[in-house]
Amino acid sequence: MMRLSRRALLVGGGAVVAVTGLVGGLVGGVVAKNIDPAESLIRAVLRDRFPDIQVTEEDLSRFAADYLTHKVAPEEVWLLRLAGSMPGVSLSHQLRDRLPGGVRDKLAAFENSIMNMFLLSTDFFLRGPEAGPVVSYVAYADPLVNPCMNPLARFDA
Which of 14, 44, 70, 152 is the most buried (most CB within 10 A)? Predict the structure, then answer.
């Protein structure tokens, strides 16, 4: 039978308190903001890559929810939630430079996919330059979801 020493009890108790506080802080922070960490990651990518484009928070939320529903496989959502719960993961260029090549390429492809789908899903291409930098989310631009949503299509042949 193993004897518990005072030191082992104190270290074990401290570890339990630290882990509980860390998990509670992460979960509590996400619940308090009521934003899914995966959605937060998508928002951060869009804000980082399109600093001059203005879009409402409601439109960002609608796009992020549609992107997660239609573009991201259900088994990959947990990875986005994990990455979104880490502050600055999508905005840190220094962190990107330290990642292995394959991971860095996968992150770049993911960010490019978000940017492309966002621009196609908004009225970005339908507005003139005089309309200003404000864009609105129209509908998710996937032919399997919204067959008529393609701002670049020309039907007047």
Answer: 44
Beta bridge partners of 134: 54
- 9-58 pLDDT, tens digit per residue, is 555 555 554 444 444 455 444 444 577 888 888 888 898 889 889 999 99
Rounded to 10 degrees, the C-alpha dihedral 52/122/86/31 comes to 120
For residue 113 the two structure tokens come to: 């996919």
Quickly tell me which residue has 């990518």 as its tokens: 45
Residue 128: CB atoms within 10 A of its CB come to 6
Residue 120: Cβ within 10 Å count: 18
Give the mean pLDDT of the chain.
75
Cα(108)–Cα(151) distance, rounded to whole angstroms? 24
- Cα–chain-centroid distance for residue 33? 15
3-state SS assignment for residue 54: strand
3-state SS record for 117-136 = HHHHHECCCCCCHHHCCECC
